[in-house]
Amino acid sequence: MKPNTPLPLDIKLMNGVATALFGVVLLMLLGSALAWVARMPQFNIRGVTVAGDVAHYNALTLRANVMPHLQGTFFTLDVNAARKVFEAMPWVRQAIVRRDFPNRLKVQLQEHQAVAYWGVEGDASLVNSYGEVFEANLGELEKEDLPRLSGPDGQSAQVLAMLQTLQPVLKPIDMTIVQLELTPRGGWRAQFDSGTELELGGGSTSDLIARVERFVKTATQITSRYNRTIEQLASVDLRHSDGYAIRLNGVSTVDTSLKTAQQSNR
Questions:
Q1: CA gap 42, 40 in Å, rounded
Q2: Which of 17, 108, 117, 150 has minimal Cβ neighbours within 10 Å of its Cβ?
Q3: Cis peptide before 172 (omega within 30 of 0)
Q4: How far is CA 184 from CA 147, 151, 188, in A?
């Protein structure tokens, strides 16, 4: 037998190029076939299954509001873009979107839990349990008697944290903060459910707690001297280093940190 004669180099190169071209053509045909399948009408997104927080939405309302904005089929849909469409809806804080073969989506929703109003009266801004500001229809609130918070942009979480810190300190005198403001200069103002206005001043959280605790411990004693109740306080100023000042039905007094209250008629 004659030994196999090695193929010339040019023949090997031609065979290699032909094999590569055949592979490229095969991949192109396969890609075209897959693209054709991916665009078939039976894979168009036709439904949404909703889970999680659905107090303000259900599958029908989501489909009506979201489906027109979704582009692509089960295979071509941009899931990240779809998530943004869901999260652009009022009350939706977070959405996790997954494909559900052959033509549906599964959506896990987390809604905003409104805990306070944000800004001036009449604004549609709310604060959620994470301290984030969001916009929503106030007519859809499950609970309307929420406190009102305000402050510089980006400080909503700080204001909410201060509210949650101060409210337990006021529990012994059964007063509830209904408004809390962080001023541009870093001072704090509050209003009780009785209408009493409270000037807290600036400083650290521990400083503010100390001032409020001093007021809580002595408020009943001071107001009783004038035959009044705490609810009849018009205003309280805690910014004094040696005590606090109160205004009560036209009478202005200054309490010098557990010393004798001094009355001044104006």
A1: 6
A2: 17
A3: no
A4: 20, 7, 10
Contact call for residues 176 and 167 (beta carbons, < 8 A):
yes
Distances (CA, A) of 134 to 65, 87, 91, 95, 111: 19, 11, 8, 15, 11
From first to last of its 266 residues, the chain has per-residue pLDDT tens of 455 666 566 666 666 666 776 666 666 655 554 555 455 667 788 888 889 988 888 777 887 889 889 888 888 899 999 999 999 999 999 999 999 999 999 999 999 999 999 998 888 899 999 999 999 989 899 888 999 999 999 999 999 999 999 999 999 999 999 999 999 999 999 999 999 999 999 999 999 999 999 999 999 999 998 888 999 999 999 998 888 999 986 664 455 444 433 333 33
- 107 pairs with which residues across the strands? 50, 97
What predicted TM-score, i.e. pTM, was given to this entire model?
0.78
Query: Amino acid identity, residue 142?
Result: E
DSSP 17-33: HHHHHHHHHHHHHHHHH
Give the pair of three-digit tokens for residue 232.
């009849």
Domains and CATH numbers, the chain: 43-111 (3.10.20.310), 114-264 (3.40.50.11690)
Structure-token match 């306070």, residue found = 116
Whether 54 contacts 92, CB under 8 Å: no
Which residues does 147 contact at the CB level (< 8 Å), separation at least 6?
Answer: 115, 116, 117, 163, 177, 178, 179, 180
Residues 6+ apart with CB under 8 A from 151: 158, 159, 181, 182, 183
Which tokens is 171 given? 């529990």
